[in-house]
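Practice set, problem 2.
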Amino acid sequence: MKLSPTWVRSSQSLFAPDDGRVGHAYLTNYTAAFREWGNGPPLVLVPGLAGGIDLVAPLARQLAKHFRVIAYQLRGEDDCFALRRRFGLRDMVADLIEFIDWYGLEQPDVFGVSFGGVLALEAAMRHPHRFRSLSLQGVGARFESGLVKSVASLVLSDYPLPARNAFVNQFFQLLLGRGPQPSELIDSVARQCWQTDQAVMTHRFRLVRRLNFAPRLNRVRIPVLTMAADRDLFVSEGNLKELCRHLPDVTSIRLPRGGHLAFVLEPQCVADEVIRFSENVI
């Protein structure tokens, strides 16, 4: 498999300290670092289970061609000791809403990937008039039981893992999609994901293990874009269809390449779909 030119260019400056405008939001329960790109209408980008802002930075740069993109660090990302104070999914949703208020955004577009999409969707159900639109990638109506999810849960929960173990990092190949992936790509993604403490990843994983959105999806009162790649092992076609069936106003896109981390593999393709969707929102 050949790396896309977009990914290669983006990855070269992935950790650049001057990438984007950096700031800190002083929220009730933690100080959330954030980064901002572009100068268009505001879009809040919610990162996934691991990797934080840096993993979504290539995507943010593509989105910044149209939006003023604001990505923030989730609770626990920069301080694993935050786990000493118990918090759940509802608390992290409150963090998102408080961040939007702190920033002074009235009705921004919101885009969540993977675990970040779970938070954004939960927020849209609890606060149906706070967003202009919602885009999701790698999110279904429920958390599905299966081999990949079971292994991920078992490993993250019970075994301390070395961040540079080649065998363990092959798990990230599954997240990028079936079939062989370049070692450069796998190593880069794994290195960034391991910047998130394993205990934090485990905690977030446990928060979604029994999640079922289906009974409450009719509470979402805004246009929603759902995206899933054909090789996403965490979101089956049936799961995505169930999500779309219960959403009152939904546009569904199947991404031609990539897996659960399609936003990493093809950031330009994902960004183009979000931009196209946003332009059609009234």
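Problem 2, part (b): a different protein.
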Amino acid sequence: MMKKLLGIMIIGLFIINPLKADNSVEIYLLNLLDEPRGFCIDIRGHKFKAKIDKELQAHTCYSYQGDISPDQGFNSLELTRNQFFLPYFNVCMEATSLTASANLNLGKCDQNKFQNFEWSIQNKIRLISNRKLCLTVDQGKSKQGGGGSPVHLIRNLSMETCSESLNSYQVWSTRK
């Protein structure tokens, strides 16, 4: 009886919080820039109501609220397979082209050449089909978002030529 109850409780934890069950991590820019809470790769829209048909952005990390948000939660196991998979929405990050200034969208995960990214030894996220391109946060001024206190900040994301001079905008890490 006790084993059965324990099993039900464990299954319940996975149902209640699927982001914890799938080893979600947020991917954040190491340089805080003008946002003390940091910038994370984010789906436009709000958490569970994010718009997967829109471009990805750099947005205030939600982890300061205590949990990883579904629109910022990437599966850590899939990262080791070069896939930037957002399990809540069942989509993968993909570049719009293999050239500089390409935007980042979301698509059905099929490991195509626009979806395969790797972490370089310098902690840059590179497109495997063009390793000269790194995931880059816009150098312009942050825009204010629609919520948070203080208000969340937003910047554009694109694939730009990897460069030491852009380390402040191209060096990333993960956290639970």
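Answer key, part (b): Helices lie at 2-16, 18-21, 76-79, 167-170. The first helix runs from residue 2 to 16.
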